[in-house]
Amino acid sequence: MIMRMSMGLEARQLQTQKLAPRMIQSMEILQLPLQALQERIEQEMNENPLLEQSDVDPNSPDEGDDDDRGTNEPVSEMEKELVVGDDRDSADDFERLVNMDSELPSTFDDSFRQSSGRMQDEADRRHDLMSNAESRPESLNDYLLHQLAELDIDDRVEQFAERIISTLDARDGGYLRVPLADLLPPTHTPEDLTIAEEALRVVQSMDPAGIAARDLRECLTNQLRPELKYYEELKTLISSHLEDLAGNRMPVIHKKTAFSIETIQAAREEMHKLNPKPGSEFLKTYVPNVTPDVILDQDEQGVYQVRLDDDRVPTLFISEYYRKRLRDPGSSAEEREFIKKKINSAQWLIDAIEQRRGTLTKVAQAIVEHQSRFLDEGPEAIEPLKMQQIADRVGVHVTTVSRAVDDKWMQTPRGILPLRKFFVGGTQTDDGDDVAWDTIRLKLQEVIDKEDKSDPLSDEHLVDEMRKHGLTVARRTVTKYRKKMGIPSSRQRKDWLLAKK
Questions:
Q1: 316-318 and 409-412 as β-strands: parallel, antiparallel, unpaired?
Q2: 5-54 pLDDT, tens per residue?
Q3: Which of 56, 174, 191, 277 is deepest in the core (most CB within 10 A)?
Q4: Contacts of residue 248, Cβ cutoff 8 Å, sequence gap at least 6
Q5: Whether the Cβ atoms of residue 89 and residue 14 lie closer than 8 Å to each other
Q6: Is the Cα dihedral 466, 467, 472, 478 positive or negative?
Q7: How many Cβ atoms sit within 10 Å of the Cβ of residue 274?
Q8: Rounded to two decimals, what is the model's pTM?
Q9: Ordered domains of the chain (ranges, CATH)
């Protein structure tokens, strides 16, 4: 009894070990954007002679030579035995692979995709366009990822650092606006948090200095180096007297620090050499050539439906020639073993592509259903959304959602947007309503842009104006978001206006 239980446990462990490569490949394929997926398929076809892509329906009796195309003939018991061979543990897998004509007809059916001939024509046309296009400037994210690749760090730290980098936006100066806790799984351990904090330190140590800071104070502090003139004074001024410094309250700083007025002024001049928005240098007047993975359609009733842009992904199937060689009694044991391994590899790829298609479709549809008001009304109507919400809705792990949306774009009535754009943090109004950070930011910026510059609105008055626009938020919330946006206080805005005159 004990022996049978032990053998059963070993069998389950062996099965887990055999499934691990499939899971890894599925995750890798899921994370690939469309262009990278095409490159991966091309690479696999170069390495695996059993993989073919169909120009026509391989099941059609009127197309091609019967010796080269797939058929729907039943698989004999001898064929199944040949596939099983001596590897009895893999019997189910290989039986399914050889018998895929009947069990997996979609493997050989390209009715849901365009032929690879049309795909190649489209690829050639895009290649010609790209050859004559201006080269793409390196983005902030690419620049940081290249630096990360050069570091010899723990794999888990590196993976989390990649996640942090993916949230950074050059248009926002390269600040980390997402709390680390939101990037962790809901049931994270203290060790996970330690890894996240180490990953943040790694990213913040990269060039440009000050990147991935959580606020202006941290951004400036991270740019300080011991060799800087007034290094110690700057550390004190930035950490404890940034508001007084911006308000030109030199006597207050002098009284609290005992620094001379001359030293404070000189240190402030040095501070002006620091960059409050280190990521902005990567902003270019360049429109990237983005290929959307997902296309959003709207039916006559106004209901949004997503579909994948599958036209450029070829239909893959396993060569009938090699399947016949596997059934041929004259084939050597070495040849049959080679074919079995290549069939397994090919089927894993085909399954992973289909799984990517299904997961990406479900995730994108769930996102669209949550953010339909944003699509209808614009940025101010975007709703707070976390990846965990989509994971719960679709029934997958949150890391699966993260991989599904990574570097993926969706063609919408409001332009081609990254899927990550639909995930935004938020807060709760005094009325108990959830409101997205983007909504508050846009409205706050709009109110301040329209204020009387000679008599700027205080935070209390900003609260009143926001209430007029249907956003009931506390003064501390307005103050917090104003500072996050790098907008000075009303007094500072007025002082700076007078200084310009």
A1: unpaired
A2: 444 444 444 444 444 566 677 888 888 888 889 888 988 888 888 888 86
A3: 174
A4: 495
A5: yes
A6: positive
A7: 18
A8: 0.49
A9: 426-500 (1.10.10.60)
